[in-house]
Amino acid sequence: MEEPSGILIKGGKVVNEDCSVIGDVYIENGKIVEVGLNLQIPKRVRVIDATDKLVIPGGIDTHTHMELAFMGTRAVDDFHIGTKAALAGGTTMILDFVIPQKGKSLLEAHDRWRETADPKVCCDYSLHVAVTWWSDKVKKEMETLAREKGVNSFKMFMAYKDVFMLQDSELYAAFAQCKEVGAIAQVHAENGDLIAEGAKKMLSMGITGPEGHELCRPEEVEAEATQRAITIAHAVNCPLYVVHVMSKSAAKVVSNARRDGRVVFGEPIAAGLGTDGTHCWHKDWAHAAGFVMGPPLRPDPSTPGYLMDLLANDDLSVTGTDNCTFSVCQKALGKDDFTKIPNGVNGVEDRMSVIWEKGVHSGKMDENRFVAVTSSNAAKIFNFYPQKGRIAKNSDADVVIWDPRMTRKISAKTHHQAVDYNIFEGMECHGVPVITISRGKVVYEDGQLKVSPGHGQFIHRKPFSEFVYKRIKQREQVRKPTAVTRKPYEGHLKSPTMQP
Ligand code: URP
Ligand code: ZN
Ligand code: ZN
Ligand code: ZN
Questions:
Q1: Is the bond into 433 cis (omega within 30 degrees of 0)?
Q2: pTM score, whole prediction
Q3: What ipTM was reported for this prediction?
Q4: Smallest Cα–Cα separation from 346: which of 256, 415, 436, 265?
Q5: 10 Å Cβ neighbour count for 262?
Q6: Which residue CA neighbors atom 9 of ligand 1 most closely?
Q7: Which of 227, 284, 407, 486 is 20 to 30 Å from 145 at the Cα level?
Q8: What are phi and psi of 382, to 5 degrees?
């Protein structure tokens, strides 16, 4: 029998970032065709009853590292498994990172990452590109990436000394070029020099276990770099996006800068909102190592709640996961030396449920703010709104039927990711995606995934996102420093004395 040509979602509460309304959503050919009350569709269509459920835009995970080669090994969630897990959790788009080695072409690294991802992805995706060194060639390639390749965000590392880290003068040059080409500068904000010194100190004190990872880079190491990045970005009037904000101190820096009118966005991640760094002190080495990531999860147990408060109040803007998964045997590369534990945790499958549980179920944010921080703000910042991040006529049919009352318990035994543990193990979450629709196709239903590799598409992003650049452009016009007009100095001129 012929497949029905469209999908009619009936009677759900349609939730966008600005309002919620009871209504129907009609989907055809990968797009939302109509949103309204009691839609009558004459054709043979599949009807999904969404009574008592929410109909929300598919989640957008702003920060993943599928199959990243890193610290002597490769992340186990590849673009196939990782994006399938995303769909099972209600996420319909990821933004992954191209990270070229120092000295290597950004363009070639980008094209290789496209070739890797395109045949495997089960949901739509886009790419940020990291700037790990500086030269005229890098500058030119940033322009080509922004003009021709659909990239409008570049990540600069202030940590990973001698590997990815840039000096302040290089950050200045990279931020200036971001502004020139209409991109947003992203920073991994930690002081790499202090981390290198701190790590040597911990090892010399005999601290070799996972707790050493946090002890060598306390909160102020993150806060200092965050403030420095904001200062440098301000000096060149470049918009800034701080990835993985992990500490109260760094979050306060972002929040204060926003109150001072800086164009800066902070991205907490599921791990930082849902768990904390006390696990790194666990007696079982494998358990402790599983929570090692950079910047570290903080041992102050009030951190997740604090970050959630700031996210609820728009001090922080958007959420990712930094999903970069290494199984226990890979983490064991650092069994005798915490500096060799591959950095990274899971999150791509559980982000939506963790944020619903800790953010909405807790009463800190409403369903509309949930949509803002899980999809629409990302789409606005990275310039593909309202193509995504909104349930509206002509938007992509990336839609999730969300049951806010249903619960599920997170476990590595049942998750769809390749990694063999889960940092949220045992967490009971209200808020479950019962159906996920990607590009107009039901890809997850009744706990089953029905999707093939290559179903997802690359999303080109244009430069000069209005959401980010309106203020930047106006400031460029009105805040130009001007020289004072004076008569030339005509008084006595002392001849310079020779220095000894
Ligand atoms: O621990 C982390 N964050 N691993 C991935 C690389 C990065 O810095 O984002
Ligand atoms: Zn990072
Ligand atoms: Zn633990
Ligand atoms: Zn990352």
A1: no
A2: 0.97
A3: 0.94
A4: 415
A5: 17
A6: 322
A7: 227
A8: -95, 10
